[in-house]
Predict the structure.
Amino acid sequence: MENLLKVAMVTKLFPKSHYSIYLGRAFENQLKRQVGIIFYRSKKEKYVQVALGRTKNVWSTNILYPFQILREAITDRPDLVHVQHEINMFGGLLTASAFPLLMFLLCFAKLRTVVTVHAVVPLHQIDKSFAKAFSFPRSLSFVLKCGLLTIFRSIVMLASSVIVHSNYCRECLISDYRASADQLFIVPMGVDENDLGSGPTCTWTTRLKGKKVILFFGYLSERKGVEYLIEAFHDVASRHPEYVLVIAGGILTYTQPYIERLKRIISEKKLDQRIIFTTTTPFPLEELHELYQLSEFVVFPYIYSISSSLPLSFAIQHHKPVIATNIGVFREEVNDNEDGLLCPPKDSQALRDTMLRLILNPDLKQRLSTNQAIKAKNRSWSICAQRTYEIYLKALQKHSS
């Protein structure tokens, strides 16, 4: 296989619903004769079993990770290094600040690099409120802005190609971080219609029997605006006793105070019997699919939209109508009145009215669901893998010309 493209993918492979697992599986199923991927994952994940090809435990979540990745890449000499960039992938904000060093080392070693940027933060949003939402000292918001500016600038300056999931993120990299338009490529978040789990676990089917479910799913952080959803549901619950709200999310290192605040709000509003709050981390994949299957619709009440969303792709996968705030990526991903409904952020009354509109209009709900099914067919992971492979080839052609 002389023409086999050898790619080292720097990524996490945990939890089971991680982006790279879906993408890697699509490569193995569709393009194994064209691409051979070696996954460079965190040493912390060495006890996690993944059903993928070659996997190496390469980097630590500390300041040494740039040198560990470089050493492995020099040994393997791949045709390309593909880095999946998430702000907290290598640890916290301190270790994230070393990412420009990783980019420089890979460039210095003449290793062609493709970076998928999963979240892009507009510079004007990085203020004291933004810092607070990510548990960063408000007084140091300027330091945070400088740090993120350095990280994103290093990516657009040193990467051969940059992949984002939406035009919103692409335009932000161009306008705020001076990226070149011809180095940016859009690969939307994939949808796997064939993987709905191994079947219902009955955990939630039994618990929610006789109830209609409104679902929020995702890591629980302040930027998600879940308090506005709780406030909106307070009125919905009084009018529609058959509905329950399930808030199913994961915990990050900095989100515990926010989670405690949400629990207090639920208790103060006496919604303990109407809101099911679960923070299993990681959330079992089979239960995730079970909850989506049981839900009437899924709500995304975010106050900051800096990335495309796997929870949104799960809603598309299960053909569920969505309600999302009219900001950032959601404005692009959700077609208002076609496959979802949009409402203003930080507005619990508008969110309540939008939820009631969907509850009281079954024809609307059915139409949104039908259009989600159509969207799902055009967003398969095999299409994402093919598009990514084409970007690999363009990156190689750029260097050979």
Summary: The domain at 203-377 is CATH 3.40.50.2000 (Rossmann fold). DSSP finds 16 helices and 13 strands in the chain. The mean pLDDT is 92.
